[in-house]
Amino acid sequence: MASERDSGSTTLAIFAGLTMIGIYAIQFVAARFSLREHLTATDLAVLRFGGAAVVFLPIAWRGGFAGMRALGWRRALALAALAGLPYPLIINWGLTYAPAANAAALCPASIVFFSFLLSRIVFHDGASRQRTIGVLAIIAGLFLFLAPARGTGSVLFGDMLFIGSGLMFSTYAVLVRRWHADPVPATAAVVLLSCLPLPVLYLLAPSQIHAAAVGEIIGQIVIQGILAGAAAMFLYTYIVRQLGPQAASLFLPGIPIATVVVGMAVLGETPMTIQVAAIAIMAAGMGLSAIGGRIASRRLSEPAPGGS
Q: Does this model's pTM top 0.70?
């Protein structure tokens, strides 16, 4: 019975991961589209968490905020600082300088890389040969991807913001695992706490939301808020809770590939040949790293020879 439950949980986690890939691919492209047209990074952040709050406020209210209190306000604030309002602001800021394909490649790659380092430091997780080779491939792919941007400081600055966001999100995942955070209260805490400074941010930061069409605003509320801000956050937290941050990274290689395809169709942004090669190297590294992490975890769970 226990193995059947584990198998069912793994199947749900896989389905959650595939859904997350689609959501993030659409999110990157939609954000880049609106940032090129009308909206600012602040506008997208307001729409993201305003839309997500519509989903999670009734859930938190029905539960009397008990789950958030059980998590603890200090932990909730820490998670919100890492995966809440600052996180999309940094990514959207980067998207004003660099294409969507850059975000889709560098954010997941840096998440895998920093998850590897932090898991080694915090949990003393073992590193299999496959995982080590995968991380080295990611580093090589990162440098190769950044090479064409050396002469364009603005694109390189955007790429650095994407890598910084990867460090933030990998730290969030490690803390979720360390604190055994329940997905719903953790995601609700991130969303609702991120809504508190939105009125001040909207008044002080530049905004062009008045120039956008109603359909564009509603579309971004759905994509950035309900899908990326609520559904994808919950799905990622659920995957980390079920499989751990290392196994969760198994799904990340699909994000840059899906985003490049959608970005070419919607935005007309075609990556350079060297960047396509870098994406392929990073995707292979992320996949090998995730598989290596699962192998290492399986070995740790197996009883030692001669043991009971």
A: yes
